[in-house]
Specification:
The chain is an all-alpha fold and 234 residues long. The chain is built from ten helices and no strands.
Length: 234
């Protein structure tokens, strides 16, 4: 087996302007979708099911916008975002890494004395339909979307601009910050999600593949969210 060699910094054809544009499109789309759902469909504010629907619509608009931007460069969207064979890693090895990471994070949650309180995320799981919807998305398309955007779209720009370690670290910090409000701004949760993001970013960089980091991400989510799915069926 050949030794793994850390890849050179990527040189994406897009840059910070496209990153800011993508963020603006997503925030504007999400705000519009949520506003319309609240006003015309009377969507409950804390419904996990509606949150899944609203975010799915906003992400669909974002990917359509990115598709149009990438067409300007005559490049395919998924190919450009690194959706390729997972380098030197097998799917089984990646899945095993994700499961191991899930166990490690569970142990660290206890070690860091993470407060066991009701969070905004917990409130979204108040009914079976919401639990099932969130669990299914979290072990399927959810990780793919996050990997394409964070490790496929954002990370190459940061790695190419400030270096491999800082680029992965900053991407991981933003990834953790995105999930922080869902966890009641508990610093332990934010730090652990940042750790997960750093592992995913490293796998993405070493393999050159967002498909590889997606497999790890799905496996990482599988233990807690399959348990959540089982609870939703009771």
């Amino acid at each position: 087996m050949e030794p793994l060699i850390l890849a050179e910094p990527e040189r994406p054809f897009w840059g910070f302007a496209e990153l800011f544009l993508g963020a603006a499109v997503f925030l504007a789309s999400l705000g519009t979708v949520v506003g319309l759902a609240r006003r015309f469909l009377h969507a409950p504010v804390e419904s996990g099911l509606w949150s899944v629907i609203e975010e799915a619509a906003a992400y669909a608009i974002l990917f359509l916008a990115l598709k149009l931007v990438f067409l300007r460069y005559r490049k395919g969207l998924l190919e450009s975002l690194g959706w390729s064979k997972p380098g030197p890693f097998s799917a089984l090895a990646l899945a095993s890494a994700g499961l191991t990471l899930s166990v490690v994070v569970a142990v660290l949650t206890k070690v860091l004395s993470t407060p066991d309180i009701d969070t905004p995320f917990d409130k979204m799981l108040s009914d079976p339909a919401s639990r099932i919807a969130i669990a299914l998305v979290s072990i399927s398309v959810g990780p793919m979307v996050e990997e394409l955007l964070f490790r496929g779209f954002m990370q190459p720009v940061l790695v190419g601009s400030i270096g491999v370690f800082p680029g992965i670290l900053v991407t991981s910090a933003l990834f953790g910050a995105l999930h922080l409000t869902q966890n009641a701004n508990i610093w332990q949760s934010g730090a652990l999600i940042m750790l997960v993001g750093f592992v995913l970013g490293t796998i993405r960089h070493v393999s050159g593949s967002t498909k590889a980091s997606t497999i790890v991400h799905i496996a990482y989510n599988s233990l807690p969210f399959l348990w959540l799915l089982a609870a939703g069926n009771r």
